[in-house]
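User: quick one - fold this with alpha-D-galactopyranose bound?
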Amino acid sequence: MNKEELLKEYKNVYGEDAKDVFFSPGRINVIGEHTDYNGGHVFPAAISLGVYGVYGPREDNKVRLYSGNVDGDIVEFDLDDSSVEKDDRFWTNYFKGMLTYLKERADGDKINHGFNLYIKATLPSGSGLSSSAAIEMLMGIILKDEFNLDVDRVTLAKLGQKTENEFVGLNSGIMDQFACIMGKKDNAIFLDTNTMEYEYKPLKLGEYEIIIMSTNKEHTLADSAYNDRVRECHDALTKLQTKLNIKALGELDEESFDEYSYLINDETEIRRARHAVFENQRTLHATKAMEDADLEKLGRLINASHVSLHYDYEVTGKELDTLAEAAWKQDGVLGARMIGGGFGGSAIAIVKKDKAEEFKKNVGKIYRNKIGYDASFYDAEIVDGTKRI
Ligand code: GLA
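Assistant: Sure. Structure tokens for the protein plus alpha-D-galactopyranose:
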């Protein structure tokens, strides 16, 4: 999207000139899925698809939001209104949560007037590429910049997670917000969610590139299933803790999990916990494989991640399985898997650059024949985190 166009669209809606324009990216995740609320590792990166926010200050205490993606009205609420919104105003919770938590902080009274926001997403909502985290981090950086707040980026990521957990009711981990706001061009972020230590790693894929494959199926019902997975892992952990001195499943390796899995004594919980433990270990092996330039191994680990998300974690579904399985069969493909929460949303594939067009054509055809509508394909461009543009 071009900045002039966004400024013009703001003016059309609000009848005056805007002050600043911001961009907040979505994210992909190379590997490490459903590990972030289990004290494991993740390996995400910010992408050029995201959400733009055009900001203009107001003299009164009103916050006005307008989304350029839906043909709706301006939504308005008071700066001090921290109530959770329902139904067709639900999307405003991502803004309201961040605003509420930033106002509660020590220098929160610096937020002393209202504002207008014009929002435009290039990231389809429900695409599994973190449009909600992109919005939260957009609000966070806008408030930090415009009101000169003394808050660092990692804290903003944590407030985004709190917004999800307490405003939206999704018991998600920190990965999405962290990836959106901490992103670095051409790098993925190797984050240990147990310690919050992180390291940027250049995505060295040589003659390969990452292709994003969207199922174009929104992940409906995903939230309740997501919260079920969080609970099942927590229950498995509690049983393991009767004999093991651990705080999170991410502390276990494959062998120690195997030895103690008898304590769990529940088929579903064993499978969920096994995914969390093995996926975390796969993430460690995968980052090492990339460093060693062993891309074939990286690809196999990515495939294994999908298999585990399918059979042990049961969060894939027919659309994501169709994409991954079709991708595995194509020439020049190192690996493919679903990303994000699952049940729809998107997958990624690591594909030889000169095979990319053929890949999209073939996988697109298989998907359309089996599912009945089109998938979308995007070349993943890895960019910096949320910022003013
Ligand atoms: C969603 C959540 C993240 C993470 C992924 C699965 O995107 O918001 O915190 O748990 O699912 O890895």
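One thing worth noting: DSSP finds eleven helices and 13 strands in the chain.
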